[in-house]
Amino acid sequence: MKDWRTHKYVFSGVLLFLVTTLVVVAYYVNNPRPEPLPDTWSYLYVVDRFQGHGQLVNFWRLPGYPLFIVLVYTLLGQGNLGAVSLVQAVLFVLATLEIYVLCILVLRRTWIAFLVGLLVGLNIPLLSYMKPIMSEPLALWLLVSLALACVFFLSTLQARRLWLVTACTLLLVFTRPEWIFLPLPLFAYMLLVALWQGQARRLLLHALASIFLLYALLGGYVYINATQNHFAGLTWIEDINALGKVLQYNMQDEALPQYANISRILDRYVAKDIKDPYAILASERSLNSGLAGEFARSTIERHPVEFLVKTVPVFFTSLTVYFEESQIAPHAPFARSLTWLDSVFRMLYQLNICFPFCAEIWLVLLCWRRTRQLRTIQMMGGVVLLALYGLMSMTLGAYRNYDYMRIHTLFDPLVILVIWGTLLGGAALLIQHRSDVRAWLADRFFLRRRVT
């Protein structure tokens, strides 16, 4: 707190805010119209059901993002999709500032936090997913807020901050279904850190109560969905994704015998190189998402080793799959500057392949007895856990290149923090502890100044 009161980090934070805001404003001025996508209409359908019939529980989409749209409609005008897109831009700026604070708490280096913040705030490929009317901007902000709450807790191990983690997790899991299993590893990790500090007993009941509350609410949602909509699950999108994975790995002929008819139907489409489950279900009225989901899950459960072996390469290749959503208008204002910035971050995006190796470094330090007691290691361990969970859930559930990039945007700020925090933090430690390196840098700098 003394650091903040003496304005040690405020100047860089304000500068980061101004630069990020200018880039976001330029991006929106270049192409100001809101951009609904095919999936947008499913969210608007839930909004309509809620506003017109009071029905929030839906088999199609979770209520987090529809409620966000309803809130914007209430404050800024019914049906104002432009306002929704602008508020999403505000969330992106807030997420950038939270990454800055997160980096300061973990690495304690203002210049590293500022550079990492710039890598998020000026990131045009990432910003291209913030403008369309989709749940990614809200989920990104919630995930970054969850990471920040987790680091706050790990820095003090206070029970009230554990409940802040619970609140952020609750909002996230009711916005994106792939995060429903996160509470188990996340709270287990926080209890492990508390055990190392000798405070696990004090926090155990709070952690168990948090997990019980989260899954009780999820269970209640599934129950209402089953009784009200005759769908015993969170969202039917999960069934579609499972079918997509089976088709992606050509496992449709490995199902149980009772699903032989479905296998034959799918074989006809695979022979035509059609593996999009939405296109298949739209043409095959005999199939529905529930039956397709049962078929896909039973196939995966019957061959789990094969499924995991085929997923391992995707774990790495999906990191660099590139697809941009919102496009820069070539003849509109700021087009040249935005295009140049976009090309820079398109090249930097390929560095995502370094993430597993950077994460491994922090996990090794976390497992090493001599370093696991360091708060920096423990806090970065929480960030790595969240990013790894996002990456694993994406590779286990997504089946299209477009989806890899789109879902990757949710945890991409955390990936950037892990990669560049590792590289820049390692460089700072090397310079700090090696006098020969400092002398070489000083010599190079001094000679360059003399030549100039």
Q: Could you describe the 3D structure shown?
A:
The protein has 452 residues and is mostly helical. The chain is 74% helix and 0% strand. The protein has helices spanning 2-5, 10-30, 40-53, 64-76, 81-107, 110-121, 124-127, 136-156, 159-173, 183-196, 200-229, 237-248, 260-271, 277-283, 289-302, 304-317, 335-348, 355-367, 375-397, 401-433, 435-451. The radius of gyration is 24 Å and the shape is globular.
User: What would the principal axes of the Cα set say about the shape?
Assistant: globular
| Helix share bin | over 70%
Element-by-element helix/strand order: HHHHHHHHHHHHHHHHHHHHH
Structural class: mainly alpha
How many β-strand stretches? 0
- Sheet-strand content, in percent, reads under 5%
The gyration radius over C-alpha positions equals: 24 Å
**CA distance, first residue to last residue:** 42 Å
- Number of alpha- plus pi-helical segments: 21
Kindly give the count of domains.
2
pLDDT < 50 stretches: 1-6, 445-452
Please summarize the sheet with the most strands. Answer: none
